[in-house]
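Both lines are quoted verbatim for reference:

——
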Amino acid sequence: MRPGRCERRSAGIVRALSYTIRDVESKVAYLSNIRLERKKGPLRVAQLPGEANPVIFSVHDEIARHYGVDEKTLRESHAATIDYVVAAAGG
């Protein structure tokens, strides 16, 4: 895999063309096109291919404590990006 590019937009929106998977002939096999918006603090909303509804990323108790995020200021806790990475790798 070869890293792609991220294009920063205003208001915390990132349009990411993340990773390009190439076959043996160096043709692009897949291009992941996502939209990511940072709402407030650790709260982010992503539009992912194959998902009808937005995916919400944030932090939960253990991760909030590790990074010094005041748990009282979190309106709602959600899975962190690392939770998704671990789940995907375990599949």
Q: What stands out?
A: Residues 2-90 form one domain.
